[in-house]
Amino acid sequence: MANIDIRLLRYFIAVAETGHMTRAAERLGIGQPPLSQQIRVLETQLGVTLFDRLPRGMALTDAGQAFLGDAYDVVRKLDQAVDDVRRVAAGVKGRLAVGFTSSSALHPFVPAVIRAFRADAPAVSLMLDESSTTELIDGLRDGQLDAVFIRQPLGDIAQIAIMPVLEEPMVLAVPSSHALALKGRAGKAAVPLTELSAEKLILYRRRTGQGLYDAIIAACHGAGFSPNIEQEAPRLPSTLSLVAAGLGVSIVPASLMRMQVEGIVYRPLTPAPRAPLHFAYREGVLAGPTARLLDHVRAAAKSESGG
């Protein structure tokens, strides 16, 4: 049956269901003589008679009755396959692997986009992965990831499309008992970056968040001092835990203020280092769930910017 045109099966089913060549031809939108000829072609290919030709219609033979179930199965499976591939191309079915750095995931933009995509395409198998920027870019290039949210593109980004999404200021995180927290406790007045020259600074490891780490170091150098890095933590939440314990101060993206860690006061900085957020994916013909996710990212970025 591999060499049988699927159209012949559809013609056969129409005749079997109507029991009449003329009515089947009307349903199919073709002439009765061509339909009759195609049914004979199918019978010749199968080597059996599928219908008894009656004065007032067409009746299935035993062979035709047995063939009808198989014909239904083949047509149904083909229709399902066509529907599946179209749904994958439309981005509402298939698989999507999305990566993010710990700092980007803490910005409300990222979970909001993921929620919107999940609501829009619930049939897509969605896998999430948190890692460093370098590892995410490598995963993207290797095909293990389809799209990633990162703070700053690093390393070899050949054949990787980088889309700027937003930019936010970084703020000072200090223990609530610290002099910089007590000074102007309302948190309205910005702390000059130069006031951190003698402070013990706690940062997340450079290999984990190289983009933000380098931005902080560059801002300190721009303010005329080299930062005194007391400790490096593996993740942003652990960085804040060390600050809350009174071991030093840190500079973090403003979106982390939402975490409301007990024992920490956030203060604006001047000049404030900037923390960008980017969306990255492989260059080329973009389709399927990745393209649909990109649509949500663009819509959210436009809303974020007030556009």
UniProtKB/TrEMBL annotation:
Keywords for this protein: DNA-binding, Transcription, Transcription regulation
Record's GO cellular component terms: protein-DNA complex
UniProt KW Transcription keyword: yes
Gene3D superfamilies given in the database record: Periplasmic binding protein-like II (3.40.190.10), Winged helix-like DNA-binding domain superfamily/Winged helix DNA-binding domain (1.10.10.10)
Annotated CDD domains: PBP2_BudR
Highest rank taxon of the organism: Bacteria
Single annotated GO MF: DNA binding
Domain spans labelled HTH lysR-type: 4-61
Record flagged with keyword Transcription: yes
Pfam families documented for this protein: HTH_1, LysR_substrate
Family: Belongs to the LysR transcriptional regulatory family.
Protein name: HTH-type transcriptional regulator BenM
Species name: Pandoraea pneumonica
Annotated gene: benM_4
